[in-house]
Design brief:
It is a single chain. With 109 residues, the chain is α+β, with helices and mostly antiparallel strands. It contains 3 helices and 7 strands. Strands 1, 2, 3, 4, 5, 6 and 7 form a 7-stranded mixed sheet that branches.
């Protein structure tokens, strides 16, 4: 179950079977999508493509964030931010995306 921020533990992420991005290696653990735009909740808001009301939209992938969970020992376990698929908005937001927010090749869209 995600913490109060909506972040997940590694065990929870692995259990979902969804891919996750590891920034230090700049790679996805799995690439089930030939092309996808995968954004955190805050980036969805920033780019004008917010997620549905709480709990109504499920993550499509995750991103490991090493500096997350600086509080209690239990809080340090929650280092995976959920990512939401915004591939349909690619043409509207493509100039504002970071490389780690794109899985695959835009030519495969």
């Amino acid at each position: 179950m995600p913490n109060r921020k909506g972040w997940y533990t590694k065990e929870e992420v692995v259990e979902t079977g969804l891919p996750y991005f590891i920034p230090s290696s700049k790679r996805w653990t799995d690439t089930p999508y030939p092309f996808a735009v995968l954004l955190t909740k805050s980036r969805c808001v920033d780019l004008g493509v917010p997620i549905l009301a709480s709990g109504r939209e499920k993550p499509s992938a995750f991103r490991y964030i090493a500096l997350a969970g600086r509080g209690t020992n239990d809080d340090k376990r929650y280092r995976y931010a959920p990512l939401y698929d915004r591939t349909d908005a690619y043409h509207l937001i493509k100039d504002q995306l970071y490389p780690h927010e794109i899985m695959g090749d835009p030519d495969n869209e």
